[in-house]
Amino acid sequence: MSLSTTSASSSERPSASMKDMDSIRERRLRLQNIIRAMRPPTLTSNPSSLISRNPRRLWDKTRLSCFSSSSSTPDPQAPRHHRASNFRPSNQHLPDIMKREGSSQSTPEASRQPTPFSRRPYETRKSRQLMSEDDRSDEDADYTQETLEEIVRGIKSNSKRRRLDNTIRARKLLSIEANPPIKEFLKAGILRPLIPHVQQREDSTLQLEATWALTNLASGTAAHTAAVVDGGAVPVLIEALAGGDEKVAEQAAWALGNITGEELYRNQVVSAGVVTPLLAALHHGRASSATSTSTSSSSSSSSSWSSPVSLVRVVVWVLANIFRHKGLVMEQQERQACIAALKTLLTHTNSEVTVDALWAVSYIAAEDEEGQRELVAADILPDLVTHLGAKEHQKVIPALRATGNLVMGSDDQTDAVLAAGVLPHYNRLLVSPHHNLRREVSWALSNITAGTRSQIQQVIDGGLLPHLVEIIGQNYLDVQREAAWALSNLTTGGSPEQLGQLLLAGGVSALTSVLAVSEITTVGVALSSLQKILKTPDLREEAVRQVRVAQGVQRLEALQGFVDSDIKERATEILDMYFQGNTEGGDERT
Known about the structure:
Blueprint: H1 21-38, E1 97-98, E2 119-120, H2 145-155, H3 160-174, H4 182-187, H5 191-199, H6 204-217, H7 222-230, H8 233-243, H9 246-260, H10 263-271, H11 275-280, H12 292-298, H13 309-323, H14 332-345, H15 351-367, H16 369-377, H17 381-388, H18 393-406, H19 411-419, H20 422-429, H21 435-448, H22 453-461, H23 465-472, H24 477-493, H25 496-504, H26 507-514, H27 520-534, H28 537-549, H29 552-559, H30 565-578
Antiparallel strand pairs: 1-2
Helix pairs in contact: 2-3, 3-6, 5-6, 5-8, 6-9, 8-9, 9-13, 12-14, 13-15, 14-15, 15-16, 15-18, 17-18, 18-21, 21-24, 23-24, 23-26, 24-26, 24-27, 25-28, 26-27, 27-30, 29-30
């Protein structure tokens, strides 16, 4: 999305007199409408309607940032060595959580990997908003390459007035909604004269306009971003972030966010030293870059941030972009300072700041076990649990993903998540009308039931088994898959008594119904679970009855013609061992 700044000099800005109030209200209404339009759509039961999004946003006159940030994708093949059963890192993304790739198949007993949700509120196209009415100009409406080259010559003019006028012309053209001439301006050589204007501090208006134009140049394709980086913009933007006034710092942060949106350049920006001035910008005018890390660690509420909300929004969005990809190279001290700042941002009064902070936390939790330990040590769990109970799905979704990522860690970390009180929220979300939430909760529970028997027992005592059994019968394959994994992991690591609780909850009937789905992985998971229950002598009689009532013999016989040889062998083994002599007509009916 495009943020706006005042491009005119201070002498041209409207006064704050009463006669301007109508104009201010009108502009505010336009901003609210734009922000509303940029919010993620409501969760939907139609998977085809989910839209993946891109991390980069164009700066434009219609300002106030929309939130953006979706999660570094956990390695689908990363095993959870300390757990005996099926831990599954998620590369699934909930609606409007990010651009991301598809899934790969996994087999039963393998490291667990749901198929993809979409991951974080980003747009596949760059978010380009129309310029406000007072910022439009017909001067360059019908521009040509010659026009752009003329503008570039003006940008490097010796005349101060001409430099500013042509920088504004370039910024306006780069802010148009449809097909801004980024490639054409780069071809005309705009970077060489533009970047020095970002470095100078004598004319703050020119510095702001140049930084704004640079932001929009970086909001294009990966090739456009590469040109900006190769042109030497990163250290210049970091310098502007650290030393510019609030508006310049905000604009520089926005440009750096667009660059970190490209995974290829994320580590380059971090190694160039962006973290310290980025955190210092949260206290612009009060905290120096040298003391930003200690200041952010000691902050305890949203009132601690002395910077304007718009600047805080951009900073937390950039932090989310930094953490969302795997393979981040960052000093431990810097990461801990970021976590301390994010903990405080989770209590910020601005909802968009909170949402981006939640997503940044979820990405850190997905990165590695060290990051997970640091999050737990920072006492961030109570805030995550609070947001699980929020009314806004935009908060619930990343809070859910963050806690789900944390239970991928050690047993101690999983115990900490459970002790923080996630299960009552999970229980409520399992019956949500939004199937995406049911799917994500089921995935999180599957990693809890992959843990210790004590952890499994907490899931049972929390009353979640009946809900897991119920949603397996719903017509959403992705939900069925996750719920089946949750029950399967219980059968792998649970005690005979806990398997009995699953049986009483109707788990065998539910797993039998899964045999009718067309996905090899899910069918294999169900067959494996049924075998484990049927092998338990005290449960066998009731388990056989439930399989028969659920038309299991029919389904097992049908699987003997399945294309996958392992599925055929498992189905035949169950039939021969527990249902010998039964025919298709031998199933009991209720």
